[in-house]
Design goal:
It is a single chain. This protein has 383 residues and is α+β, with helices and mostly antiparallel strands. It has one domain. It is 51% helix and 8% strand. It is built from 17 helices and seven strands. The protein has a five-stranded mixed β-sheet. The chain is globular, with a radius of gyration of 21 Å.
Length: 383
């Protein structure tokens, strides 16, 4: 089920996803796909990352033969990309390991294997890898040696022209390769301090994931759920495939491990994002995963979930235009503490294209002369 304010095409799409999940688990679907056209069906399925989920269930979806053939072709193309992605991921982790850098896989092919047992079980477009902040120099050097080149902002909390800006609003660097997937090199597991867990703790509780003959390190089960839920909540669940990720992860939690997840979310201040993820995932199946919330937090989460469903777009949630402010409001509500809210406002301001900047994203144009002086190395010495 989805919220009453959700777009009309969303109910049949969610029903299709439920059929896909049932097929994936060798279960009988508990729902029939309701009639009614989905505008730009192919675009919607691709944008929301549902191709690998729906393709095996094509005969159960009630779609035309032409659409089933398209789905099969899109699934084959995705499978080939997934093999390349897994190979690139393994190369990145091998390069970092050879340089003595401890690195953890975020989402991507490792999450696909963990939740579906297949390299092509989910859609992703880049390689997210998390390292400790003090390993960024060594990690960047290893990536450059392996053929990746840094693009965009280069400031980190430790170096660059705007380390204070990076400390407040940034969380990763971007590296491109002429032939391989883009790498996002993270020093925080989620945007602008939404999920603040020391890297040492994440590394201590890591698990090994096999990617076709190569093993990479990834977040432990509990931290994976918190990261995936927080990342999706920050982006207002703009892709239905992210909700499917959470449904798969939650299904694997039972008893004491679920209590451990709730305790970890409480300690990290991300009970609201976890509760959002659980509530969104309930659209796909009934589960007994409950996140204990205060009455106030429950009202906030209910409002955020309703807003996420109603903002769902055929092309994913729009970032610009009127929906920008709804997205900002939802980000501000994800955590109760004022420090996080200040970070969220700073990041939102950084996305407004007002002043040109050399090192920071074009969005940091709002930083006029006084703030530029404060953030510059000279100004930082007096701060």
């Amino acid at each position: 089920m989805t919220e009453p304010g959700a777009p009309a095409w969303l109910s049949p799409l969610v029903a299709m996803a439920k059929v896909g999940l049932a097929t994936e688990r060798d279960e009988k679907p508990s729902v029939d796909v309701p009639p009614g056209p989905i505008p730009r069906w192919r675009e919607v399925v691709a944008t929301h990352g549902l191709v690998p989920l729906l393709a095996p269930a094509a005969s159960r979806l009630g779609i035309e033969q032409e659409e089933a053939l398209w789905l099969a072709g899109a699934s084959n193309a995705h499978a080939l990309r997934s093999l390349t992605g897994a190979s690139d991921t393994a190369l990145v982790h091998r390069a970092l390991s050879d340089a003595g850098v401890q690195a953890l896989a975020l989402k991507g092919s490792s999450l696909a294997v963990r939740t579906t047992g297949r390299l092509d079980g989910r859609v992703y477009s880049d390689i997210d890898v998390l390292v400790a902040a003090d390993s960024l120099d060594a990690a960047g050097s290893a990536l450059r040696t392996a053929g990746w080149a840094p693009v965009g902002p280069s400031s980190t909390p430790l170096e660059g022209r705007y380390p204070r800006w990076a400390r407040i609003t940034a969380h990763h660097l971007v590296y491109d390769h002429p032939e391989r997937m883009t790498v996002e090199l993270h020093w925080q597991p989620a945007h602008f301090g939404a999920l603040m867990i020391p890297f040492e703790q994440l590394w201590r509780e890591r698990i090994a994931v096999g990617l076709g003959g190569t093993t990479v390190w990834a977040l432990g089960d509990v931290h994976e759920l918190l990261q995936v839920s927080t990342h999706a909540a920050i982006h207002r669940f703009m892709r239905l495939g992210w909700v499917v990720d959470i449904a798969r992860l939650v299904r694997g939690f039972r008893g004491g491990q679920w209590h451990e997840a709730v305790a970890a979310a409480t300690a990290a201040g991300v009970l609201r994002p976890l509760a959002m993820g659980v509530a969104m995932a309930a659209a796909f199946e009934d589960h007994d995963a409950a996140v204990p919330l205060s009455p106030r937090d429950r009202r906030v989460v209910d409002r955020l979930v309703a807003g996420a469903w109603s903002a769902m777009s055929e092309r994913g949630s729009a970032i610009g235009g009127p929906k920008r402010w709804g997205r900002l409001a939802s980000r501000l509500a994800l955590r109760a503490d004022l420090r996080y809210k200040a970070r969220a406002l700073a990041e939102a301001a950084a996305s407004l294209d007002l002043v040109e900047s050399t090192d920071m994203p074009a969005g940091l144009a709002f930083v006029a002369a006084p703030f530029k002086r404060l953030l510059s190395p000279a100004g930082a010495a007096h701060g």
